[in-house]
Amino acid sequence: MFRHVLLPGASLRQVHAMALIFVTATRWTQAEFEARAPLSHSLAPVHEVTPLELRVFANNTQALALHYNAVIDAAAPDDVLVFVHDDVVVDDWMLGWRVQEALLHFDVVGVAGNRRRRPEQTAWLMLPHSSQWDAAYLSGAIMHGQPTAKALTFFGPTPAEVLLLDGVLLAARAGRLQAQGVRFDPQFDFHLYDMDFCRSAQQQGLRLGTWPLAITHASGGGSYFSPAWQRNANTYLKKWGV
Question: 2-240, superfamily in CATH?
């Protein structure tokens, strides 16, 4: 079950009126998340500018899709949903406004992505069967690392319409997903759920784009080609064919 987190400065009346909802799932307990998760400490400045709600699925051992879909199904059509990993620091205190601006141009928005998709491609930023980046077609930027040791990864010009987005942060208006029947697929416990979601969204006529949103991904975003990643990659190729 998720927990509604009332951020400093918010009132219960504000929470019920909010349209900006951040959604995250974490293996930590609720107390550990609030004490240690980068995301939990970085949203207060965003909330000072744009009232928001944080929905946390603590003690999580299930596919992200199950929690994300539950939020989509329960949301009001005008709600802006921001699906984000628990190890993200939101550096941009105007992010709430920027996401809503981005959704005037695209149906699904992220911080980094690829303007093309290649046959048998199983990583949004890499060429098929390779660890080489598809550099000429990438868009966006993400900071990686810890507060004392961070490095910016600039993928390419943004905003840009793309075919694939990194799932570290994905935003959409609930009504667009509901109307088109777009959901996350729980076959993908973690890896490749974002690529699958992007293809499902495009299949239903939604437009995807990157937007300049400043975040730091504390974990570094590795784990490509691990056994768990390869298992999901096989499921992805079986589902989509190419």
Answer: Spore Coat Polysaccharide Biosynthesis Protein SpsA; Chain A (3.90.550.10)
